[in-house]
Amino acid sequence: MSRPILILMLCVSGFVGRAPAATCAQEAPDSPPPEEPVGVEDEKPSSETDAPSSDDSPKLPAENEEPTFDWSGEVRLGWREVRVNGSEDQFDADLNLDRGFRILGTELEAFARRKDAPFDHLRARSSGIDDPFALAEIEIERFDLWTTRARWQKSDNLFGSVGEFHPYHSKRHLLDIGGGWTPNDAWSFDLDYRHQQRAGSSRPTRQVVGSAFIGGVAPFHERSHDIDLAIGFVPSEHTSFHLTGGWGTESRDDVRYFSGDLSPGAPLQPIERFDAEEHNQTTRLGGRGKLSPIPDELWIEGGIQYAYIRRDIDAEAQRLDFGSDASDQLFEDVSLEGSRVDADVELGLRPVEPLTWLTSYRRRVAVEDDDLRSVQISRDPPFSGAIMPSGFVAFNGVTTRLNAIASELDWQMLDELAVRAGYQYGEDHIKSGLAGIDQKVYHHGPSTGLTWRPNRRWRFDGDYRALDTTQPLTEASSADTDRFRARAEWLALDELSLSVSFDRTDRRQNTSALDTRSEAFNGTVSWTADEDTQVSAGVTWRQIRSRTRALYATPPPAAPFVVGYDGEEVVTHLDIVYDRLDPVSLTLDFTHVRLAGDFPYDLLDIAGGPSYALDASWRLGLEYRYRRYNERSATANDYDAEIWLATLVWTF
Predict the structure, then answer these.
(1) In sequence order, what E strands does 113-219 have?
(2) 8 A C-beta contact, residue 249 and residue 278
(3) For 380-432, what is each residue's pLDDT tens digit?
(4) Is the backbone peptide bond immediately before 381 cis, with ω within 30 degrees of 0?
(5) 533, 611, 617, 616: which is closest to 579 by C-alpha?
């Protein structure tokens, strides 16, 4: 390229880029004017006004003008109205849906587009704000380097199953905050903090001695804090090690205790006043590792976990003297200590490609205050004599030793068929000084299973497990348990599928024991005609039968008695989504639950409605829900409810 043409190009580029004009002026006189190209005279601009402007010249976007993130999300708002005719308490136990404005849910997600962004990915969502079941969580991460997360969950107004002896009500709040750091491929660190609060109106029984028990079935409050740290080290592709440590506290207060007798007709009697606080501290240390000396053919994996537990009970109560105002102190402060060790190891072997053999061994040793402790009181306890010696209340721990071994062989006979066979054996050794227990219980039994997939449209899965529990000194705890499960899936068409499952558990025990049999059948049909029409329908049948004979038929002259439960539950459901009437879509959900037996009830729940898409970002919806509950044997808890919900959804 000749020097005059080069100088001209520099001048033009300097003008377009707003370079100083002196640069061109200094260079131009040193060179003759460039030659005019042939045939381009008419294409030259006729005046300065016809020259292209610098504003019209193309410009590349600067790096800092590029969006930092790609954002997407959804916000669901609603207004709810509720009408209940009948038992509002039972409705609150089932749903407890409030009226008024609601934030039904939110979703937010972001991916970084630039390397200098503070993070690579963000995901946040919430649901059920101000409703009984609420959830909010967020996760932020820098890929392959660090991640941080937080989760808050609320579960209010939970009640026990129908027919439960004590109504169970709790409000539970859970906060979980954690994060991880992975500086390289070999090391990883993870820290997690959990805080939980639970308050309610009942507690399970805490101690059983003979036929008497002391249990909390009144208001209580629990709080817990837990911190866990995990360190991972992966020196090679086939070797890994993990160390864990943690510390936790748990406290309970506002507990009111009851005392009673489990003999037929014996009433529960409350202690006049009981103020109790229980504080537990737990320290945890553990480790886990995996070694593959022969990759894909031999591996060993195992771990050990140690926990130290300290329990302090601060209690004061009036003497249990019905019909009087006695105020003798019944309990004093008690401190208990305990420890628990869990260890397991697994050996895996794949001698040839179709065969895989796994053998695992697990051992647990739990000791809680192995020495007997007693607390003196000023007068005879109300449940002295046949139940426990007069003059003291004894607290002592229980020593439990568990040994279990299991072995399983998997054989991939064909590409379409795989079979499994295994055997398990376990031994429990329980020792309690207070109850005078020192016994061993043995568990053993085989297991088998198979998976068959003759083609891409059919699949069958089934397994059977048997467990025999024996106790050498007495037959009271001996039992036989059989469980059979099977599942079949059929993809009749690409749009139509059918799944059927069956589950049966049969537990048979000897004298003074519990017999239980449960069977369940589930069938579901799903049809997706296209992306605009989806239909799912199914039925679930479940039957439970239990029978308890001669439960705690002491002290004499109490006679043996039988407590049993017999129930059959049938659940049918139908779900339809129809979007072919664009911009209108329709939904319908139908559920019917029928329980027959000792605690019968009938439940009908129907919900559905239309929604209208205003544009690509906004959608209006209206849902109507009818719910009817009928116990059939009584009317105190029956109700029918109507719920209207108007929604507005914004998608961005």
Answers:
(1) 121-127, 133-142, 146-158, 170-181, 187-200, 205-209, 212-216
(2) no
(3) 333 333 333 333 344 455 678 889 999 999 998 888 999 999 999 999 887 76
(4) no
(5) 533
